[in-house]
Amino acid sequence: MFDLNAHIQEIESLIPKAEKLRKRKLLPYYLLKSLALIPLAISLVFAYIALSNLDSKAIPIPTGVAAIIFLVAAFVLFSRAGRNRLDRLRGEIKEVLLVPLLGQHPHFEYRPKNSLELEDLRRAGLFQPPPNILKGEDLFVGQIGEFPVDFSEIEAKRRTERNNGKKKQVQIRVVFKGIFGRIRLSHSSQIGSTLVIPQLVKNSQNSKWFAWVNEALSLLQIKQKHIEIIGLPEFSERYAVYGDSPEGSRKLLRSELQQVLLDIAARWERPVYFAFVDQAAYLGLSRKGNRFELSVRRPLDAETLRKEARIFLQEFQEIEHYMELLAQQLS
Questions:
Q1: Which of 2, 102, 119, 195 would give a disulfide with 242, using CB separation of 3.0 to 4.6 Å?
Q2: Cβ 306 vs Cβ 152: under 8 Å
């Protein structure tokens, strides 16, 4: 049995190692920020030259414009490099603090730098047109009963290009952000694919996040046929079902599985996606924000780390429970 409270207390013994890593890796970051002063100095020199040539009869070279372009380009370059370095440092600190704790779990292996792949999302077929950009982390790989299980945090986007006259318009939109999991079955079901998609979210607060979810849902272009499912009225109100075989989808989505999906959505309090494709079941749990995101430019605080670790581990156990519920229905 994985004792959550006992493992959270262990995190204090790991803080000195993580703090040492933080200080060592921040030195190049501050050096990078110092180097950003060089293009600023060069730009000031360019601006001085431009101002000095204003009274000249010769055609002035647009050094002022060049100075602005150079400064903006340097700022963007150094800012991106600094953010990337901080992101890598957060990942390394997370690995130092969480891998020893989760390494003691009897059924799951934690791989903080890995995630499910873009092809896994495409194979599930839940997001159509499919995403073509994926960023992810926090992969858990394990076993529940007879089924291999894996899930991770992902952010899937779709990048499209369109020629509008002489200009090329590039649009990037978020297709899905949250936890995406997979349960692999040992045999083929022979019932085709079944997709369970949330209906448009009705939320009294009308928050921006729910507005984004509704926009993402409205842009879906599901190719499979819509299927009327007999069972719980609440399930039919909250979900739309698509599939290759009406008979196969109805056979899969028994009232018991419908209730499990409703229970998961009620506990998660965010839109839930489900797909069954040949030899795998997929679960998508929408969420906003990232887990265990520490401020690495300040010394690590034990109380903050305990709080963040508790949230992270509790969520892990919650998702593990959801996968167990689904595995029981698929066995």
A1: 195
A2: no
Task: Kindly write down the DSSP assignment for every residue of 170-187, as one continuous string.
Answer: EEEEEEEEEEEEEEE-SS
Helix (H, G, I), strand (E, B) or coil at 20: helix
DSSP-based helix, strand, coil % in the chain, nearest 5: 50, 25, 25
Candidates 197, 94, 140; CA nearest to 320 is: 140
Summarised one tens digit per residue, pLDDT across range 189-247 is: 566 789 998 886 555 444 554 554 555 555 555 667 888 888 899 998 889 898 888 88
Separation between Cα atoms, residue 269 and residue 126, nearest integer Å: 19
**Host H or E run for residue 238:** helix 233-238
Q: Which two tokens stand for residue 3?
A: 């004792």
DSSP string, 114-174: ----HHHHHHHT-SSSPP-EEEEEEEEEEEETTEEEEEEEEEEEEEEEEEETTEEEEEEEE
d(CA 6, CA 310): 11
The answer to whether 325 and 147 are in contact (CB under 8 A) is: no
